[in-house]
Fold:
Amino acid sequence: MKAARRHVAIGALCGFLALSACDATALSEDEKAKIASLSIDALGPVPPAPGNRFADDPRAADFGRLLFFDEGLSESGTISCATCHIPDQQFQDGRPRGFGTDETDRRTMPLEGAAWNIWQFWDGRRDSLWAQALTPLEDLREHAGNRTAHVRYIAEAHADSYAEIFGALPDISGIPENASPVGGETERANWDAMTPTQKDGVNRVFANIGKAIAAFERTLIPTETRFDRFARAVAAGSEQTGDAAFSDLELEGLRLFIGKANCLECHNGPRFTDDHFHNTGVPPVAGLPEDLGRAAGIVAVQSDPFNCLGRYSDAMPDACDALRFMKRDATAMERAYKTPSLRGVAGRPPYMHAGQIATLEAVIDHYSSAPAAASGQSEIRGVVFTDRGRQALIAFLNTLDTTPVSDP
Amino acid sequence: MPFQDKTGSRRFVLASVGLLMAVAAIYAAYRLFTPPAPEIDVAYNTVSRDGFYQVMFETEAQPIPVHETHDWVVTITTPDGTPVNDASISIDGGMPAHGHGLPTEPQMAEALGDGQYRVEGMRFNMGGHWEIRIGISADPGLDEAVFNLDL
Structure:
């Protein structure tokens, strides 16, 4: 009798434990679908770049790689794209704000997967990789060069490579050494004095510099992470083995991420971004000029001569979806910034558009407390996290690291 | 008395186990039998608010894609089925649960005849419940058709 009771008791206990274990590890169909939607396997091929007919030309990509590391494309001869976009640091610099010849106002963005972006920069003020690549070349705090100087440098150092891809360089014999429509007073005056043909020739070569760099950047595709291996096993219905197996804490973090923590509202899809702009109440940095985020980006991208609809774009106007259907309501986009990808996020503090937040722990605090925006309207609603929940979320974010934590 | 005590504690253990089992069973039943969330109307064919129009749409890609700009074809008739060919239409929408609108500004691109209109620039930047409002201005009057999408 006693033995029978004990058996019943043990049986019941085991049943209960099995049920709880089942609840902790079995993923629902909805969870599985969300996990699959975030997996690198859901990422299609590099999307076409209609504005850049050299985008998939391997010679352009090779030339672009050369230019990406070429310090000759700067006023001082010491700055290249790689100065801030450091290859072995996910093509970013780990600083709160990028620093070329001086400190800029924004955090350097990583480049892996940038070819999938609809908008470039935190405020989307450029609509293609090639138009983006041109902007720092003339920014006084970055490469600090100017349009004619860059074109003259190409003619002097890379004429053959250039001609092989883009055709012969225009006659630059009469153009000023330093001229640009966006430079300092002297550069602008010099630019104004140039003939329309000279300006057009210079603009065309300048645009091609961007197109080559973009062709190179299109080769920087996202790398597989532990999360992707986990997601692949989940999709296949097979057991997660090796580093594809998630710890209880990591699984708990993943569940928070796709569930209660609301992260998927913006960080969705295989790049963990919705390619849109959101005001999340991130405070301005004291001492920096007023920053309206996307509200200013909307205006800037429309007036950019190198945008998809401009004369240096290779796209038919119909192909310029992003610009044509752009949300133009600047009021709704005040202090809204682009959702960054979270792939590799744990390896690249500090966070936010001007490096305002130093650690992932503090980022979670921000989303938990959901402070009001300095201007515009914050979209986030506070989420209450337990200490375990915070740790879990961070443990999950670490599985998105591009360099595996351990390789057994 | 000691025997009594022992029985008492065994009963207590058994009672606890029984209680746990009951809780577990109730929880399992709850998980198994919880009805799905209240159904929202996801028919892509509806009558406009004031009843002026019957409105339906088809999308260029099926299922309706997320993260992809695509076209819709909206068909508008009067309630008796006569195509409405002179309408101008506007598209708006968003996610009611998250308080944000569409990530793009879709536009009516062309009237295709037979009450059909091509709308360009539709885009959804996340899965979930979206509400799409199609404003219609034509001879019968100003009206709005509302669609619920579960992506």
User: Anything to note?
Assistant: The mean pLDDT of chain A is 93.
